[in-house]
Design brief:
The complex is a heterodimer of chains A (418) and B (78).
Chain A: E1 4-12, H1 19-27, E2 34-35, E3 48-49, H2 69-74, H3 77-93, H4 100-104, E4 106-111, H5 117-130, H6 147-156, E5 162-163, H7 171-184, E6 190-197, H8 202-210, E7 241-249, H9 250-255, E8 262-271, H10 284-297, E9 306-308, H11 316-328, E10 336-338, H12 341-344, H13 351-365, E11 367-368, E12 392-393, E13 398-405, E14 409-416
Parallel strand pairs in A: 4-5, 4-6, 9-10, 9-13
Antiparallel strand pairs in A: 1-7, 1-8, 2-3, 6-7, 8-14, 11-12, 13-14
Helix pairs in contact in A: 3-6, 7-13, 10-11
Chain B: H1 3-16, H2 37-51, H3 57-60, H4 66-76
The chains are: A alpha/beta (418), B mainly alpha (78).
């Protein structure tokens, strides 16, 4: 059976424009959430966000490093983040230079939950104010979700499978899981896989606020707003960014002497079949996804040392926790579980990929990132290590990421040390 | 260089991200400045906005160099 390993990582997050800056800030317990700066929020109910910082910020992102000027002008930010994260991952894997044969066996699977909402918003204003003759000729392909994978394949000449998942907040995890399968099935030897999102625009923030999904009671204390499992949590905080990994067939990676971070061993998928935005109250879908991932990995619950939870800082946190307890045991079998959304907010379609990278780095460095702002743990959290406030050194052999999306779509991924 | 030429050149630099000294009057948008057909549609829209002219599709198709754009604008602006 073909095995799939991770040989490169790339991140653009509210805590950094690259992997190491993001990870160091996360481990130090810093927050990437602050007052929203991108537009006037006077009339918005939610006034905070986890924005990717501008390049003059110490943790800033410089789009000029890897994304052509013309492309930056033509596409929505989620595509810019995806191209940059993909470039980082290829550089990390030592695969920027590939021969034609390898390019034909290298594919891309980068998705997004929503896609180019900022551009859709601004161009509809152009249409309304100036008429159809002023709509940009780049409008459509600069907003389409699969132009993440499209742009990356064009930039690097990658002619393998070109795929894009759209499963709301499960996108990043599904993208990696699907891509790992493509390698297992022999469709490709190398896949760039991940997710990207950027919908911190007036329409995006208003839409999630109207759906009662966003935190609105901590506008004056942004760093404290995302507080998974805390009694005072009341909604998620919008984040943005991208996470992309290089997945590679194990023998292929070994033969070229690649640095191997971890192996993708388990992938579980399910549907809630319950409600458009609310999770099943008993977390049945979440449980099914986790059990499938464990079964595929051939692992026992006690083999998992770290769970990066979906944990959005909503009422759903404790539903997920109850499901994790049913799968791993009432003390999680000794595993630690944290929600890094406490530090970066919810990256929606990017979340599962970014958080899987955090799982991989937890394995690399044998340290688990904290759940910030967990001052007053909610009922049901007793006897569970939710890694409050501070990162924790501990053995991490294998880690599980949960991602759940609107529409009731669930994905669980397990990565383990090789 | 005329005032029209200066403004055309500025728009081309802003849209295509090319060095200003490459934008000579004889430069072809596609062959010399790296534009594709959609970039030209966008450039024509930008010229229309900047100079308050209307450039119909059949005229736009004939604009292939920087000079073509300058000449069309000089002949048609109000």
């Amino acid at each position: 059976m073909r095995r799939v390993v991770v040989t490169g990582l790339g991140l653009v997050t509210p805590l950094g424009g690259d992997v190491e800056t993001t990870w160091q800030n996360l481990i130090e317990g810093k927050s990437g959430i602050a007052a929203l700066t991108r537009f006037d929020v006077t009339d918005q109910k939610a006034k905070i966000a986890g924005e990717v910082k501008p390049k003059d910020h110490p943790w800033g992102f410089d789009p000029d490093k890897r994304v052509d000027f013309k492309v930056q002008r033509q596409v929505d930010p989620f595509i810019v983040y995806a191209i940059d994260a993909a470039g980082q991952a290829l550089e990390d894997a030592g695969l920027v230079e590939m021969d034609d044969d390898l390019k034909q066996r290298t594919g891309v699977s980068i998705g997004s939950g929503i896609g180019g909402l900022p551009g859709i918003e601004s161009e509809s204003l152009v249409l309304s104010e100036k008429g159809p003759g002023r709509v940009s000729p780049h409008f459509v392909h600069g907003r389409l979700i699969n132009l993440t994978s499209g742009q990356v394949s064009i930039k690097y000449g990658l002619m393998g499978p070109n795929h894009s998942v759209v499963t709301a907040c499960s996108t990043g995890a599904h993208s990696i899981g699907d891509a790992a399968r493509m390698i297992k099935d022999g469709d490709a030897d190398v896949m760039l896989a991940g997710g990207a999102e950027s919908t911190i625009n007036p329409l995006g923030v208003a839409g999630f606020a109207q759906a009662k999904a966003l935190n609105m009671s901590f506008n004056d204390r942004p760093e404290q707003a995302s507080r998974p499992y805390d009694k005072n949590r009341d909604g998620f905080v919008m984040g943005e960014g991208a996470g992309v990994v290089v997945l590679e067939e194990y023998e292929h990676a070994k033969a070229r002497g690649a640095k191997i971070y971890a192996e993708v061993v388990g992938y579980g998928l399910s549907g809630d079949a319950y409600h458009v935005t609310a999770p099943h109250p008993e977390g049945k879908g979440a449980e099914l996804a986790m059990r499938m991932a464990l079964r595929k990995a051939g692992m026992k619950p006690e083999d998992i040392d770290y769970v990066n939870a979906h944990g959005t800082s909503t009422m759903a946190d404790t539903i997920e926790l109850a499901a994790v307890k049913r799968v791993l045991g009432s003390d999680l079998g000794g595993a630690s579980m944290s929600s890094t959304k406490s530090a970066i907010g919810h990256l929606l379609g990017g979340a599962g990929a970014v958080e899987t990278i955090f799982c991989i780095l937890a394995i690399r460095d044998q340290i688990v990132p904290p759940t910030l702002n967990l001052d007053d743990p909610d009922e049901g959290t007793e006897g569970v290590d939710l890694v409050p406030h501070k990162a924790k050194k501990r053995p991490v052999r294998a880690a599980l990421n949960n991602s759940f999306g609107f529409g009731g779509t669930n994905a669980s991924l397990i990565v383990k040390a090789v | 260089m005329s005032e029209t030429a200066d403004r055309v050149k500025k728009i081309v630099v802003e849209h295509l991200g090319v060095d200003a000294d490459k934008v000579t009057e004889g430069a072809s948008f596609i062959d010399d400045l790296g534009a594709d057909s959609l970039d030209i549609v966008e450039l024509v829209m930008a010229f229309e906005e900047e100079f308050g002219v209307e450039i119909p599709d059949d005229a736009a198709e004939k604009i292939t160099t920087v000079k073509d754009a300058i000449d069309y604008i000089d002949q048609n602006k109000g």
